[in-house]
Amino acid sequence: MALHTRRRFLEIAGLVGGGVLLRRAWLPEAQAQTVPAEPRFLLMVYFSGGWDQLLAFDPRDATLPAHQYVAGKAPTGGVYPAYGEAAGRNAAVDAVMQATGGKGVQSAGGLTFGPAVPQSLLAHAADLSIVRGMMMDTLTHEVGRRYLLTGKFPRGLAAAGSSLNTVVAAQSQSALELPNLVINMEAYNAGAPASASPVFVRNAADVRAVLNPQSPNALKGSSEAVLAEFEQLSAECGAVELDGDGLATSFRDSRGQARKIVSSQAGALFQFTATPPPEVASLFTAFNLDPARELNSVKARAALAAQALTRGVSQVVSVTLADGLDDHFDLAGQHAASLTPGFHALGLLISYLQSKEVGTSGKSYWDCTTLLGFSEFSRTPLLNARDGRDHHLTGSCLVAGPGLKRGKVYGASSAVGMQVQPVNLSTGALDNAGQVIRPCDLHATLLKSMGMDGSHLSNQSPRLLTGLLR
Amino acid sequence: MDARRWGVWGLALALAGCVLQGPATPAVDAGSGAPGPSLEVGAPQPVLPLDHPPVVDPNAGVPSSGARRLSLAQLKGSLPVVLRGHTWKIGTANGFDSRAATLGVPDYVGSVEENLEPTPLYAKFMADMARDACSRALTADAAEADPSKRAVMRFVEPTDTVAGRPEKVDANLRYLRLAFLGAYTPAGNPPELARLRNLFDRAVGAASGGTVPSKAHLAEGWRTVCVGLLTSPEFHLY
Question: Which of B111, B168, B29 has the alpha carbon at shortest distance from A142?
Fold first, then answer.
């Protein structure tokens, strides 16, 4: 038979085409996902309560007449930065106000920051990007938080899917002890493998409780070995009956992973005590952490996140670095004081990740880490009658990562009233014919930047922020 | 056309058929006769919205709700019943209370629903629970002369071995399966009994190192059985 005939070509083309179509038709989405070849870490940093973006990532020049009260009338720009109202009450803000001639806007790495952002974070500005003018679609704390955690608008108050950290942990197929560590934060698993489920901790003592057996000598070593073999035996009939949905199999898998966790002896890495071991003492030094006073501070949480990432314990870490930002009262005195320590801790965390190399890759942990810094929404651009700020729909967030552009401002809130505005998705510049940025767009973009699949967001119709991607 | 070419064409047509056949949306499930989803308005047969879950044939019997994992509250209530008053402790506190936040018991501020997945974190803390609670129960059993007041060694004496008193060891294992798992063990030597007997015997043998097992070695065997049962899927799922 001739090798190169028209008929032969059609036969082969038909088979190849059929195979391709068959794969598309039959392979479930999850199986079609690709696992990134390079190490990929995710750091989610949450600022709880709704942050004031004027003080942080969407500042305004306080000296402009449009941003000042004139004869008791509200600012014509619909924005009152009120930086001066903190004068004498917040040394950090005072210093920035003095250094900027009263404007309150700091510039670094091509970005602008409000007066609550300390030098320790400004030092990394060139590595960061800011997304501004994002529509949060809610003024309810739980809804906004869960919207940004999952990329899906919640059902009522309930989260509508897995949070980003779980999605990344599941797709990473990480074999680390605690793939998805969550420090003082919410997280969700809706349908991902149990091994990717968030491990919730409040502090280093909780991490030790997870990594160390409670009573190491409760059973003799020989009994543990016999028991481990017993657990490998085929299941009892009862367990087979309970395994209709795979729950018993999932339980056995988790039991095996739990054995691995306690045998790792990684608990020693989290001896956050007044007299820490050397490997923890050096961490404390890097974070300028006083173990006698600051073991429950946000700096200690940041140090915990750093240790988990750089000591090979976690692939994905989520941490709350500011609490109690819901300032409807006396904002000028309190809000910056709550925000600044969180930003400082984040700056120290980034510095620490930069200082540690991933194995012998020649890359630092920071080079391989995708960052999302967020809050559930922002605060109103004008003060309320109690000198506080209420909830505002227009959100901002801080992003960074190996797949994202650096030093980029993507999107903007409007000059008057800090409203949401449509942007050109391929540039991030304002465009009346463009699209409004939403959390699902951000999630899809972050996953794309990490080489991961975002098909779970499909019912939100996400659009990639292509101008943010490298 | 030779046989190989027929085969190639047949396979190609089969593949095309797989692809070209679109997703069917039958108005009626041919198997059960129950109404299925349809876009057809005014169809002669009953229809369901497209996103409606499948309708279960009421004549097919009561469907199972699927297996579920015990909640922390259920575990906290069950363990003292199973172990005759003993429970999991961390220091002086109840272990289920101490680990409640980490294990996702809702605080009704940030969360309103307990995650009942058997996660590795859950399995780890349940391993802690089993080892601690079983040690407490066995320590108390060793000091209790009346078998009826013991939690684990209920139908055996502290000196009974598989070789010496197999019927008593089996009776105790049957009791433990019933008490811990709610599972009746039929007469004879069913595999589920043999597995537990083997676990006990091997743990005792490993502890005694081949010598005549002491009371402590035998207690170690029962402790191992206790932990094995408390960390089995059958204890945690229902």
Answer: B111
ipTM of the complex: 0.76
CB atoms within 10 A of CB A280: 21
Sheet holding A409-410, edge to edge: A199-201, A180-183, A316-322, A41-47, A369-374, A394-400, A129-135, A409-410
Sequence-ordered alpha helix ranges (H) in A111-155:
119-122, 141-150
pTM of the model: 0.82
Residue by residue, DSSP assigns B139-185 as HHHHT---GGG-SS-SSS-TT--TTT-HHHHHHHHHHHIIIII--PP
Q: Which amino acid is at B181?
A: L
d(CA B91, CA A107): 53
* Alpha carbons B6 and B24: distance in angstroms, whole number: 29
CB atoms within 10 A of CB B57: 13
Closest Cα in chain B, distance from residue A350 (Å): 27
The SS3 assignment for B47 reads coil
Distance in angstroms (rounded) separating the CA atoms of residues A148 and A322: 16
Angular region, A110: left φ>0, alpha ψ -120 to 50, beta rest? left
A356 touches chain B (CB under 8 A): no
Nearest to A220 among B19, B128, B207 (CB): B207
Write out pLDDT tens, residues B63-119.
556 789 999 999 999 999 999 999 999 999 999 999 998 888 888 876 778 888 898
